[in-house]
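Predict structure. Chain length: 346.
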Amino acid sequence: MPADIVETAPPAALPERTHHDRAAAILRSRSGFKPPEAAFWLVVAATFFLLPERHLLLSEIAILGLFAVSLDLIIGYAGVVSLGHGAFFGIGAYVAGLTAIHLTGEPLSGLFLGGIAAAFLGLVTGPLLLMRASDLTRLMMTLGIAMLLFEAANKASWLTGGADGLTGVQIQPIFGHFEFDLWGTTAYGYTLVVAICLFLVARMVVSSPYGLSLRAIRENTLRSRSIGIPVGRRILGIYTFSAFMAGIAGALLTQTTMFVSLDVLAFHRSADVLLMLVLGGVGYLYGGLIGAIAFKLMQDWFSAFTPQYWMFWVGLVMLIVVLIGRERLNAWPARLLATIRRGSRA
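Prediction complete.
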């Protein structure tokens, strides 16, 4: 062997990353907060301080946004269509009201019981959707469940107050210190904190491997089942969690208004939240929030501008959104930004 050639040991092989580790790294990178998300929540937090005269409206928007996010979990991520999601909203509202009247006025207890009651209803009725796995039959079954609950609440006037509504709801101060006021300041802060916490939980769910499996089920149920994904259990799980979130939203409405009526179980609740998703976009959680903001602001503005025909203008906006297409609308801000940049360089 020549003297100038020195034998060296081969470099130690680096530990090869498994596919599981790579997938976990990709999930972590995608689930991190993006700058536009931080900007969105900063604007939302700023409304608490900058718009004190609009706290009542903002509180309602936050409740509707949470309700829309709950529906997006099953439609946008699991592909389960529903026309009766208002049933969970209504059951949460009534349970929170009955809890305040007969058990305790402590708000967090009523909130929790409202969400649990709605989740139980989702867990019980969920298997019915799995038995009839076509979209049309799912629509009819969810609508039927909501109609049954509406009529049950109407007939059980000794419990729900019937058409007159449930009166006498008194909510104690939050943590014994923050009393609900006429201007809605405490209600907005309380609603906002609850909505943000549940939104973060929903975001964690859809960003996890469980959330990815839901998207696989939405895209192709047969292929998902063939690779070992337990389709029925995954759908039932997200359906129950979605019902829990909708029940919390209904309980928030009861606690912030201190009144419950059959309106919370009416069909228009389910229809309105679908419209919000169409406005904001289906399949990403912020779509529910943006849709709720757009829908409620349009309703508020059009009803002030023309009280009798506000639904006509809302319907017209919906038609325009559908005709133009969600993809084109989402691309407009990027095109506008690119145009501004080109103009500044010229």
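Summary: The CA atoms of residues 89 and 340 lie 44 Å apart.
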